[in-house]
TrEMBL record:
It is found in: Nucleus. One of its GO terms (cellular component) is mediator complex. This is Mediator of RNA polymerase II transcription subunit 23. InterPro entries: Mediator_Med23 (IPR021629). It comes from Stegodyphus mimosarum (African social velvet spider). Pfam families: Med23. The keyword Cell inner membrane does not apply. Its main location: nucleus.
């Protein structure tokens, strides 16, 4: 197997040497030689034919190491003009199906020389990825997005104008992937990767990407609102004020006994699913909602439905016990302060029913 890899690398070496080679006269009179457009076209076609023959000669096992060696040679090329020729030839190979798009993208992203300090190689690599990523299947795009986000995290926020070209290059690729019209990857999967990557790193990527990422995440807020219900009460002192946009169940009405008002019996949190950008208050324990329902007459069935409790079995529910204790204490305090209201059958008396 090792012999095969060396043989493949040897072919790549010969091809790259052919592209980079300049005769002694060409080097001596480099500033005086002017190539016509026709000459350039002939040279380009010769290189393209050589590239086609080279990649066609590789087996399926030889192609990945050969391509990796090709990219490595590009990164070590001192001449930017020659490096761009090699990149254009690689693009030609992808366009004409000599090399798979996904393999090229993965090879470029895995190259050790792909660091933002290496400006030209970085920019040319992401420019090529942006051109050919449309030919990658959605699973491949998702894997590439993970690596690209890691690369974006590698650029420190303190770097500003000095690395603006590198930032624009990687931002262009992210914009292409995030664009719903290109249909490269389902948007929810992009959101999933973005929200998993950012908290895992403990910090947000460079400020250059903040608007792009935040706008994309915010575009899912209407979806998050559709699949959740704002069932929260704003508590201010001893008074309970219900916001205009807040929804509360009508206790005793059959339509409210669905899954909309379900709460976790341990934490009293709403069972939200997925990594949608839910409102912060939706992620907190909904003890205010549970207490509101408990305060209503004939709320037993509603409470059991909300917490998933069975009336036929004896179950302990710490969240429910805690709210019942608080409700009893509250009723006792109000009874002491409103003795006359209790005698007249006022609202305080309903708390004991």
């Amino acid at each position: 197997m090792e012999t095969v890899v060396i043989s493949a690398e040897g072919k790549v070496d010969r091809f790259v040497e052919e592209v980079l080679f300049e005769g002694e006269l060409a080097v001596a009179f480099h500033g005086f030689i002017i190539h016509t457009a026709e000459d350039q076209t002939k040279i380009q076609k010769r290189y393209q034919e050589s590239l086609k023959n080279m990649f066609s000669s590789f087996s399926e096992d030889e192609l990945p190491p050969a391509l990796s060696h090709y990219v490595k040679l590009i990164s070590s090329t001192s001449s930017q003009q020659k490096a761009r020729i090699l990149f254009s030839l690689l693009e030609f190979g992808v366009t004409n199906n000599f090399v798979p798009q996904r393999l090229v993208c993965e090879t470029l992203l895995k190259c050790d020389a792909l660091v933002y300090h290496n400006e030209d190689f970085w920019c040319q690599s992401f420019m090529l990825i942006d051109k050919i990523i449309a030919g990658v299947d959605y699973k491949g795009v998702r894997d590439l997005l993970k690596t690209i986000l890691d690369k974006a995290h590698g650029i420190k926020c303190a770097n500003n104008v000095a690395v603006m070209s590198q930032l624009r290059a990687i931002q262009k690729v992210l914009e292409t992937i995030f664009d719903r019209n290109t249909c490269l990857l389902p948007s929810y999967l992009i959101l999933d990767e973005v929200q998993k990557k950012i908290p895992a790193k403990g910090s947000y990527p460079h400020w250059k990407f903040s608007k792009l990422i935040s706008s994309f995440v915010d575009s899912f807020r209407p979806t998050a609102q559709m699949v959740s219900v704002s069932v929260f009460m704003e508590i201010a002192g001893d008074d309970t004020a219900y916001g205009k946009s807040k929804l509360l169940p009508v206790v005793g009405h059959s339509a409210t006994l669905g899954n909309v008002w379900k709460l976790d019996p341990v934490t009293a949190k709403s069972p939200l699913r997925g990594l949608l950008p839910y409102n912060k208050e939706l992620l907190e324990p909904q003890t205010s909602l549970l207490r509101y329902v408990l305060e209503q007459p004939y709320s037993r069935d509603m409470v059991c439905s909300m917490l998933g409790l069975s009336k036929q079995q004896k179950q302990r529910c710490p969240v429910l016990e805690e709210q019942l204790v608080e409700l009893i204490v509250s009723a006792m305090e109000k009874s002491e302060n409103e003795t006359e209201a209790m005698e007249d059958g006022g609202p305080t008396q309903l708390l004991w029913q």
